[in-house]
Amino acid sequence: MIGDNGGMTTPSPFSARPQQQQPTLPRGEVVGTYETYADAQQAVDKLVKADFSVKDVSIVGNDLKSVEHVTGRLTYGKAAGAGALSGLWMGVFIGIVLVLFSPASPGVLGVALAAALIGAGFGMILAIASYAVTRRVRDFTSTRAVIAANYTIVVQSDTAARAQNILGRGDDLPPAL
After folding, report:
1. How far does Cα 45 stand from its chain's mean position?
2. 29-70+148-168 maps to which CATH number?
3. What pTM did the predictor assign?
């Protein structure tokens, strides 16, 4: 192989790797639009039960929005508690590793317990410090989610009529929008 500098180069063993496929929007026809993801899942389930070939069926969420639900006020106590719990889990993990890789001795469980308590203490201190730095910038707790305004079911064009026929039968699905 000739390189850019005119000299010979050896191909890298990594250059022959297949390119990772980028996600693309599905092509085909929309056979139903539903308000909730659960309704769209139910429609696909109906297709499956009717022996419809679902390998080319897609559920597409449209008009995505980020929604943050405020769950409460953040205080030093809540920050400390969450930090202690997080640190406790890390301490338990380290304690388990110490127990597994240390010779059997009568004090090994004490070491594991000490690791858990030290982890909880460090987690609490770090959480309190982090809250003190960000206080007045974000004094609340919340959960975040990305949701869609509606969900469409897209199938290949050559099977769209059959899918619409299956989804049009029965009253077990909410009507499409």
Report:
1. 22
2. 3.30.70.1530
3. 0.57
